From TrEMBL:
Organism: Glycomyces tritici
Protein name: CASTOR/POLLUX/SYM8 ion channel conserved domain-containing protein
Pfam families registered for this protein in UniProt: Castor_Poll_mid (PF06241)
Keyword Zinc: no
Bilayer-spanning residue ranges: 53-77
Its membrane topology: Multi-pass membrane protein
Top-level taxonomic group: Bacteria
Length: 594
């Protein structure tokens, strides 16, 4: 366009110089150029004859050139905008978090990362999914109103294609999170994505986290991910949590608080001032942080270690704190009131009766985990109309070592059936969402079952200890009216766990130990087993009482507030210097082996 403009200017000036040589060639050149740029210039011409004809033709040529220029610019801009809309440009960020895939988990992950990055001035999340870039951005803006200091960048591509993954610049990222796919075989998609990330030539140096839906695919996923990958078994973890929660109310609230970034978080801190000193001193050296364990210099996490052991150089303390800035070594002597400490042993395990209403992929693991916790002589009854349940129960039954297993095929929403089961005679009731129907329908059936149980409890003036699973976290609010003890939302907790592990890979060991039946786990034990109820006490004293029992205390639960959201009476990592009063029925949250 520039060459054509200059050529037309020269030709117009040449003809004008021939017919009118008054201004010389330089003047005619300028006059021709002005007529090309501005068509209105011709109205000011006072010359007539051949000069007017030359300027008129030059002006017409200028109009064609300017029109063509506008068309070229518009077409080019439209093409560039369309290219950007396709989300195929390279992300040039560094130290960002890469999220591969798209599901309902993505909104939980983004929300948690926004909380985690709140102290950073310029945090970035790069999402790669096989969806339209603009649609992803619009949906994120709809679901998450305030991104604070975090910027979300979306790209369109196959999360299992190395070339597409290269668009989000994983080689410069601090972590990669692979979401569970909505495909029929999500584990196959996970393995493909792991291979594409770690073996696709993108130069990955960060850690990669993901979750398999079926435990039998865990070895393959870990092999595909290599050393950089931290892969968890989603169904296994949720089944373990379901079993632990059904046996002690409030545990799901504790785990949710530990897993999200909204409250207290777990940090690994090196404290040279405590090297070669017993861990009992570390237990009481932080007023606003709670000691949980030790990360050895070899990279091994030890939860609830013996307090007689000493902290070695290179070891790190595992602490629970509101923020890393709140971790301050307190050199003052802790105030421990010996007069309120009591030493009461826990009651031994007795045979238990458990009722499971519903069936899904976790059910087999739930039964296997229950068999490791309950005392000999315990019985578990399973009631469901799930088509896969009869055959599965037939195979599981002979493997039960401790508990008896009974099965009844029926509709769990049937009031007559529920009354015939006499739910008040069970120690624990677990209501599961069936996976043979859509999630919303499964939640609806679970809500009907819970409402029947609540009405039966009110009519008989009794209380059933019920733990329920929700497929969709949005239905948890609706389920509160059923007054169940706890609600487990599997996708949410798995998303929280993946986000925590992405920020700190050592946490995969910590939570792996907490969910396992071996070693120390989280328990909510009667407060009267530690201190005298109805007496003012500080948490230094509670922690010391727990230490003498070989346990680590890091919170308490007030029974009177057990039904009040959002904490449901749970107080983690309290200020150890402040006094409070515990009543009969309150619980101390501890790490213990049984």
């Amino acid at each position: 366009m520039t060459v054509i403009t200059l050529a037309l200017t020269a030709i117009g000036a040449l003809f004008l110089a021939v017919v009118q040589d008054a201004d010389g060639f330089g003047g005619t050149l300028w006059k021709s150029f002005i007529h090309i740029l501005d068509a209105g210039t011709i109205t000011g011409d006072d010359a007539g004859g051949p000069s007017m004809v030359v300027m008129f033709i030059t002006t017409i040529g200028g109009l064609v050139i300017l029109s063509s220029l506008v068309g070229v610019l518009t077409t080019g801009l439209d093409a560039k905008l369309e290219e950007l809309r396709k989300g195929r440009s390279l992300v040039v960020e560094k130290d960002h978090t890469v999220v591969l895939g798209w599901s309902d988990q993505v909104f939980i992950v983004i929300s948690e990362l926004v909380e985690a990055n709140e102290s950073e001035k310029r945090a970035v999340i790069a999402i790669l999914a096989d969806r339209d870039k603009v649609e992803m951005e619009d949906e994120i803006r709809t679901k998450i109103a305030d991104l604070k200091s975090t910027r979300v960048v979306c790209r369109t591509g196959d999360p299992a294609d190395p070339d597409s993954i290269g668009l989000v610049n994983p080689s410069q990222a601090k972590s990669v999170i692979i979401l569970t796919s909505a495909e029929e075989d999500p584990d196959a998609q996970l393995v493909r994505s792991l291979l594409a990330v770690t073996q696709g030539g993108n130069g990955i140096k960060c850690h990669v986290v993901g979750a398999v839906a079926e435990g039998r695919n865990l070895p393959a996923a870990r092999l595909a991910g290599g050393r950089a990958a931290h892969i968890v078994d989603a169904n296994d973890l949720m089944a373990r949590l379901m079993v632990q929660t059904c046996r002690q109310s409030g545990l799901s609230v504790v785990y949710t608080d530990l897993l999200d970034f909204g409250g207290d978080e777990i940090y690994m801190v090196e404290e040279p001032g405590l090297f070669s000193r017993p861990l009992s001193q570390a237990l009481h050296s932080y007023r606003t942080s709670s000691f949980l364990g030790v990360l050895t210099k070899e990279g091994r996490c030890i939860i609830n270690p013996p307090t007689s052991a000493s902290l070695q150089p290179g070891d790190k303390l595992i602490l629970l704190a509101a923020d890393d800035s709140a971790i301050v070594l307190d050199g003052s002597r802790p105030v421990i009131d010996e007069s309120v400490i009591v030493a009461r042993a826990d009651a031994g395990n007795r045979p238990e009766r458990t009722l499971i209403l519903g069936w899904n992929a976790m059910s087999r693991t739930i039964l296997e985990q229950l068999d490791q916790y309950v005392a000999p002589g315990s019985v578990t009854d399973v009631v469901t109309d799930h088509p896969d349940a009869p055959e599965a129960i037939r195979k599981i039954g002979p493997t039960m070592r401790v508990q008896g297993l009974n099965f009844k095929e029926d509709d769990t929403t049937d009031r007559v059936l529920l009354e015939s089961l006499n739910p008040g005679s069970y120690n624990h009731i677990i209501a599961l969402c069936s996976d043979d129907v859509a999630p919303q329908l499964a939640d609806s059936k679970t809500l009907v079952t819970l409402l029947h149980l609540r009405d039966m409890a009110q009519r008989s003036n009794s209380r059933f200890k019920v733990v329920s699973e929700m497929a969709d976290d949005r239905n948890r609010t609706l389920a509160q009216v059923t007054q169940a003890d706890d609600f487990i939302v599997s996708d949410k907790l798995i998303s929280l766990l993946l986000t925590q592990t992405a920020e700190n890979p050592h946490l995969s060991q910590v939570f792996g130990q907490l969910f396992s039946p071996e070693g120390s786990e989280i328990y909510l034990k009667p407060a009267e087993h530690y201190v005298r109820p109805g007496v003012p006490v500080n948490f230094y004293t509670v922690a010391e009482s727990a230490r003498r029992r070989g346990e680590t205390a890091f919170g308490y639960r007030v029974a009177a507030l057990a039904k009040q959201a959002p904490n449901y009476g749970v107080h983690l990592n309290p200020d150890k210097g402040l006094q409070f009063m515990l009543q009969p029925g309150d619980k101390i949250i501890v790490l213990a082996e049984d």
